[in-house]
Amino acid sequence: xxxxxxxxxxxxxxxAPPALLVEDVSHSYGTRRALExxxxxxxxxxxxxxxGLNGAGKTTLFSLITRLFDVRSGRIRVHGxxxxxxxxxxxxxxxxxxxxxxxxxxxxxxxxxxxxxxxHGIGRREARARAADVLAEVELAERERDSVRQLSGGQMRxxxxxxxxxxxxxLLVVDEPTVGLDVASKSVIVTHVRRLVAERGVAVLWxxxxxxxxxxxxxxFVLHRGRIVADGTATTLIAQTGAADLRSAFSSLVGPAP
Length: 258
Known about the structure:
Helices cover 38% and strands 23% of the residues.
């Protein structure tokens, strides 16, 4: 066997790196410790839920993953790329929907997407084609020329998801995306993101405190007061805690759930 053939075989046999790997990450705001030795991973093509009450540290962790904050203790990798040492490669593989709305309300839906495309170095013609595709996926193609201000809260969230997918990332991180939305809007968003996982193999980290958004087979990490206190599939956590359902399991780990 040639050296090149042997190298190719080894490359094929090597397991793919996690879509997201968080290793021993801590973070403080002055004297207040927000995260304490957090370890977490998202497998390629999996829907992973990060469960925690408000104030658990979910948004702080997302700020570190997305480079809004510097990682000062521990390490974070996106598809094998260290967010500190190789931020360009890491961020190109990452799509983000923040908890706070980040669209420009006074320009059109399409122009919001085109601006995002320009930041990723996507040419104007290609950007227009991609914008049309992602808006069609979230069933908002007919609203592309409307200003964002004219949309409902659920529609704005769908535009943010479309924008996050414009540069075709392999990992999507979503922070409390359905808070404040009506039941129908929540269902549309959850269904769409799960379809991305099932049909495209996009890995998802979904941060929430709403337990009805988690399915039995999902990977789950429970974050409480800055620490990961449990992990496993939802079914596994229920069995390990001897609970009747995920809500009871969550309550046994962190106290009463909302």
